[in-house]
Design brief:
five-stranded parallel sheet; 13 helices; 20 strands
Amino acid sequence: MEKNDLLQGKNVVMVVTGSISAYRTPDIARDLKKCGATVKVVLSRGASEIIGKETLEWASEEPVLDRLTGNMEHISLFEHNKENAILLVCPATYNIIGKFAGGIADDPTSTIFANALGSEIKTVIVPAMHREMYESPILKSNIMKLQKLGVQFVAPRLEDGKAKLMYPEEIIDTLIRGKGNNKSLLIVSGRSEVPLDPVRSLVNKSSGYTGISLAREAYRNGYEKIIYIGNSDYRMPHYCEFIKCNLTDDFYRIAEDVVRNRKIDLIIIPAALSDFKLRQNDKKIKSTDIASLKLEPREKLLDRIAGIMKELKLNIPIIKFKLSDDNYVPENSDQVTVLNLIGEVPFGSKPNKYVIFDGNKKLMEKSMSKEELAMILIKIGDGLIEKH
């Protein structure tokens, strides 16, 4: 993880309990520090049998707490910077979640949680255990009880019969996340394909990285529902509703269905969608044949969505992307357009030069990372939602 200031000034108290996933916590502590946080680790007795205290002291660059003394650490850990404090329980075992839900405070970890909850300190719990334990109705009831009290959970990855610790980036996204705002976002992103025959396609290039960056920024800003239509070369965050597709026709069909049947507050379309239709051959084109392709312009997805909104009397703001050159002439419309300059580095995670227009008014021209672009566009999107 590259350094950033997303958690600058935050005081993260990281409670490590006795899941085997504790071995991953030094890396998580280091990632938290790369985001600007101060990290103070509390090590449970069970965790100390899995990961060494010295390792976590190295990772956090702070003394590790493994017992409470007369200095009342369960209070002093937070009292000097309470407004910027976050309690992170990672990993959290079945046992410790049960203690938290039952109001038991008989060890350092549960006592620290009890004080944090009573002090209204933001608390994030990251479970990790065997899958059967995670699916226990008792655990689910305990999680629901804690969620009603304002505790946030980062769902585990269910793989190989285990509920594994979620990836560090998504844990950090939840630490950054603001209060839920009940907004919903539709992202259409990734490359699109037009089939030539059963085995070949014409492809518009896209890595989907911009879409992933938009999803992460929206989640951090409290969006309750994030629907991602398309594909990506990068891992999809667990908090997205991911509807995978590759064919251009499928992009159109699925996007139309979502706009018609779901509550959507904002649409952002960085997808590289084909502008053409092509008659597909039913059989594989022989490699010895000369094949001629006839490309016909197709209806734009934006026009399709505009027609649906007019039909249903919807007024959903849209931010669209356009891959072009420096000779772009801004359109006379009420939409926000992001000009992605093809002469720069439009694909992948590298920074690029972008020009943002509101109708024909230039708002910004800047070379920036896709993460910075996402921050700007979600802020613009929030303003558009308020206007609508």
